[in-house]
Amino acid sequence: MLAQLSDTIRAAAAARQCLRLRGGGTKDFYGQSLEGEILDLRGHAGILDYDPGELVVSARCGTPLAELEAVLRGEGQMLAFEPPYFAAPGAALATAVPTAVPTFGGAIAAGLSGPRRQAAGALRDFVLGATLMNGAGEVLRFGGQVMKNVAGYDVSRLLAGSLGTLGVILEASLKTLPLPVAEASLRFELPEERAITTLNHWAARPLPISASAWSGGSLAIRLSGAAAAVSAACDRLGGERLADVEAAQFWRGLRDHSEPFFASCSAQQVPLWRLSVPSNTPPLALSGACLIEWGGALRWLASRADPRTVRGAVARAGGHATLFRGGDKLAGVFQPLAPALEKIHRNLKAEFDPQGVFNRGRMYPGW
Q1: Separation between Cα atoms, residue 300 and residue 321, nearest integer Å
Q2: Tell me: the pLDDT tens digits for 37-75?
């Protein structure tokens, strides 16, 4: 398949045509625009290497995410950043594609992390190495399979969140982590400002909090770790303990955006903003409904407010805003780049994809 991919890319480059890299298509909604002929990567699939003892897994881009995670669970391990599925079975999003299957490569290209990111780190933090096919149809390898191999300019991690604009992520190696021995979820009734203050207070204490979410006056937290530590934290914090089945459904729904907050946003076609701010930022004075994750650092905003108003409020708080789903994309999906940073981005694009073959316009218009 590599030879076929290379031939297709070389032909597109020679004709100055655009290719739209696509796996399961579960994140087609994310980004600026979809341009070019689809290059389906699902055929390049399979787990290449998995060493549970070294906590490292390597797989091809088209490998179904669910298949990979099932293998890890069989060894008592996980992708700790909890990559979202979005179109997983049972998802309630009106825009979900029922037959779409999220892929390993798509997860890396999107660079998105789920609820456990506040404790475990982001997807980018777990990337050890990657194999890329560039705009000339050449195969390039970066990084390795152990953390100590990462040195210099870390291209493999640069690919996380690049939305396929630099090339085809053929393969990648990620660090895995053991599944928690015990977990428990607690719920508290708190107003928004007090919930933010409480989460930041808890963050300064030795509590095994692996996820948090506030919406509509209700704060939920997940505790993960050794059984004794989880039990002691439950006794110390109080609150209402959720049944295990209910808790698992809630955190999965939060990860995949099938929880009522996101389902309602989609059904009513209200633009969904992803706001990254300092965790102790007070409630933002913006119209619409809000859901708070990651100890206060991630705010989901369902709002029809003017994009300049949203970005202005977030910038004053020291953060940035992404128009995650829906809305008028003419306002720009991603935060406008500072001139120096934009130059770096353009230079990287020119180095890996000089003819602009891959996912043209996906991150910023004209790129």
Answers
A1: 10
A2: 999 999 999 999 999 999 999 999 999 999 999 999 999
Return the domain boundaries, the chain: 2-178+338-352, 182-256, 260-331
127-178 confidence digits (pLDDT tens): 999 999 999 999 999 987 654 444 445 788 999 999 999 999 999 999 999 9
Domain 182-256 has CATH 2.60.40: no
Element (H or E) spanning 91, and its range? none
What value does the mean pLDDT take over residues 227-239?
97
Per-residue exposure over 19-51, b if at least 16 CB sit within 10 Å of its own CB, e if not = bbbbbbbbbbbbbbeeebeebebbebbeeeebe
The amino acid that residue 293 corresponds to is: E
Question: Can you name the CATH fold of 2-178+338-352?
Answer: 3.30.465
Name 265's bridge partners: none
Report yes or no: 27 and 106 within 8 Å, Cβ to Cβ.
yes
